[in-house]
Amino acid sequence: MSDPHTSSLSPAASGLARLGARAAPLVCLLLQPLLERIVGRIASRHPELFDRLGEHCTTDYVIDPLDLPFALHLRPDPRALVLRAVPRDRQPAAGAAIRGRFLLLLQLVDADGDGDAAFFSRDLTITGSTEAVVRLRNALDDMEGSLAGETAAMFGPAGRAVLAQLRRRYEDQAGGIAA
Predict the structure, then answer these.
(1) Which residues of 20-44 are buried (b: 16+ CB within 10 A; e: fewer)?
(2) Which CATH architecture has domain 11-144?
(3) Model confidence over 138-175: pLDDT tens digits?
């Protein structure tokens, strides 16, 4: 049975993708302390995000960067906050799922990308509750500052340098359209 995420890749890239999929459980385990720190800090600094989500703060979201060997499970419930990396084949049931390339998702987190254009060009796929995804998008749009920038700053100069490099890569891939 072929994997839809690797079937269009070259044999070498497909092999790397399969290796990444086998390593996903370990990668997820190693990422967990960082994800807990990030989500805890963001929640404490931006409690207004939960108000903007309304009833959807208890929705389970899957954010699936298709070019990484794992997805993220987010439940933005201030009483039981969850952000965890999960192997792609162990994604939880979700009320809403957002799938796209990592760099596009990064742009959308910062409200720098055009989510509607990405959706209609099929670069972004949304399943489940559209209302939940729109509420999440609106909450991020209304947030003061840059969520990605704030997260990168948690890791000092190295974090900021990595984010700057990722943003440059996105701009190069998007043909200079991204801000």
Answers:
(1) bbeebbeebeebeeebeebbeebbe
(2) 2-Layer Sandwich (3.30)
(3) 888 888 878 888 899 999 999 999 988 888 887 777 66
